[in-house]
Design goal:
This protein is an alpha/beta fold. The chain contains 13 helices and 23 strands. It folds into 3 domains: 6-145 and 267-329, FAD/NAD(P)-binding domain, CATH 3.50.50.60; 154-264, FAD/NAD(P)-binding domain; 343-463, 2-Layer Sandwich (Enolase-like, domain 1). The strands form 5 sheets. Strands 1, 2, 3, 4, 5, 6 and 16 form a 7-stranded mixed beta sheet that branches. Strands 17-18-21-20-19-22-23 form a 7-stranded antiparallel beta sheet, sandwiched between helices. The mean pLDDT is 97. The chain binds NADPH dihydro-nicotinamide-adenine-dinucleotide phosphate.
Length: 464
């Protein structure tokens, strides 16, 4: 039998890579994990975690305003971008340390280097230009921001990577895209006092979400002062003579801004990885093709997380890693379950969602019932803030199963997590109806919508 330097070699120290390496090492396997940048990956280092810290930072000016309605007088407030970035960097460094220690304590070997495949069992460590061999290999290199190389002037633009490290807060920003990152950063920058414009090619932001969430968020963002341009794209970005950047759009608009940020999706990060040398197949986007068990066409090489372009979410990568361990090292073949993934958009207001949108459900089922509530949250009464929460349940008329739950408003992400458990368990509308409300909360609305707002039958809306 061939002998290898390692039982498992993991390329990429992000969410999926770290989890698989740590668990495999904990089971006594000889494991190495290589990371070319920083352990923790996109989520921890320049994604979900610092983003959420920025979201918190950007909410304070509204908190200060709201306080007045509750009897508080808040003194003059000032915001210091450099202080925020420094505090964020400190926290990210702490988390990276935890990731490293978790791996070390489990007995995995950490390699701070880029790693590339030389053949199906051999990996080159770029820093030392040495090679090692492994019985099994996991590709967990994640994704990179789409640089939109076809756009003249793209090199003048930033992506989310740079947004976390700007030396100064811009006075104005133009953000291209209508997905998670564009919408979240538009709200962050606006909340920090930046004049913010969002430009999106489609009819409405957040194309894959329920229409009530999309329209409700759009309205709320515009009411705050974020400018949203739809059915338009940037065609060219140039340096303005007076400083800053000028973007020319397809419809002929000219937008001048200190920064232009591209948030146009993320591509699988496989370039130069040597996949072809190992015989690993990729699709036209460069994503590693895997089967239901995250196995590539080379039986001992696996791929997890964003690099496979299945569902680009941290918890999904972690789940895929845990399934890999069950399948390969615990003798319990387990394929990741990608159905009913609850998710949140940390816009302001937030969106929390799980399951089918009304549009998707109406296409798949003969008759659906839609329960919808739109109301002013209690906190907004005394603060006087004009804001609305939207809650929505999409139910299959035939068996009363809840197919989708969608929330726009404070803590929507927190609620989505619990709704995710319910929908996963196959909850029906009758279960919601016989659940006692928690009062006074916003979430109680979910269990007190007794009558459908409308039905959709054969694609036609039926009111009453
Ligand atoms: P998304 O896929 O969410 O959005 C990409 C946006 O770019 C879409 O609006 C898309 O339009 C638009 N777009 C793509 N190509 C072009 C183009 N050539 N010209 C103009 N517009 C274009 O990607 P993000 O970059 O926002 O985020 C990447 C992934 O990261 C997300 O899919 C998500 O899974 C994950 N993420 C999750 C977060 C969370 O859980 N809260 C937060 C941030 C990221 P269209 O819709 O028309 O295709």
């Amino acid at each position: 039998m061939a002998s290898y330097d390692y039982d498992l070699f993991v390329i990429g120290g992000g969410s999926g890579g770290v989890r698989s390496a740590r668990l495999a090492a904990g089971l006594g396997k000889k494991v190495a994990i290589a990371e070319e940048y920083r352990f923790g990956g996109t989520c921890v280092i320049r994604g979900c975690v610092p983003k959420k810290l920025f979201v918190y930072a950007s909410q304070f000016h509204e908190h200060f305003e709201d306080a007045a309605g509750y009897g508080w007088t808040v003194g003059e407030s000032r915001f210091d971008w450099t202080a925020l970035v420094a505090a964020k960097d400190k926290e990210i460094a702490r988390l990276e340390g935890l990731y490293r220690r978790g791996l070390e304590n489990a007995g995995a070997e950490l390699l701070d280097t880029r790693a590339e495949l030389v053949d199906a069992h051999t990996i080159r460590l770029v820093k030392t230009d040495t090679t090692v061999t492994a019985e099994r290999i996991i590709i967990a290199t994640g994704g990179t921001a789409n640089p939109h190389a076809a756009l003249p002037g793209h090199e003048l633009c930033i992506t989310s990577n740079e947004a976390f490290h700007l030396t100064e807060l811009p006075k104005s920003i133009l953000i291209a895209g209508g997905g998670y990152i564009a919408v979240e950063f538009a709200n962050i920058f606006h909340g920090l006092g930046v004049e913010t414009t969002l430009i999106y090619r489609g009819q409405e932001i957040l194309s894959r979400f329920d229409h009530d969430m999309r329209q409700g968020l759009h309205k709320a963002m515009e009411a705050k002062g974020i400018r949203i341009l739809l059915t338009d794209i940037i065609e060219e970005v140039t340096q303005s003579p007076a400083g800053g950047l000028t973007a020319r759009t397809k419809t002929g608009a000219t937008i001048v801004a200190d920064q232009v940020m591209l948030a146009l999706g993320r591509d699988p990060y496989t370039k130069g990885l040597g996949l072809e040398k190992a015989g690993v197949a990729v699709d036209e986007r460069g994503a590693v093709i895997v089967d239901a068990y995250s196995r590539t066409n080379v039986p001992h090489i696996f791929a997890l997380g964003d690099v496979t372009d299945r569902v680009q979410l941290t918890p999904v990568a972690i789940h895929e890693a845990m399934c890999f361990i069950e399948t390969e090292y615990r003798g319990n073949p387990t394929s990741p379950d990608h159905d009913l993934i609850a998710t949140a958009v940390f816009s302001q207001p937030e969106i929390g969602t799980v399951g089918l949108s009304e549009e998707e459900a109406a296409q798949r089922f003969d008759e659906i019932e839609v329960y919808r509530a739109e109301f002013r949250p209690m906190k907004a009464t005394l603060s006087g803030r004009a804001e609305k929460m939207i809650m929505k349940l999409v139910v299959n008329g035939a068996d009363r199963k809840v197919l989708g739950a969608h929330i726009l408003g404070h803590d929507a992400g927190e609620m989505a997590q619990l709704l995710g458990v319910s929908l996963k368990a196959g909850v029906t509308k009758d279960d919601f109806d016989r659940t006692m409300a928690v009062h006074p909360t916003a979430a109680e609305e979910l269990v007190t919508m007794y009558k459908p707002s409308y039905r959709v039958k054969g694609g036609q809306r039926i009111d009453g």
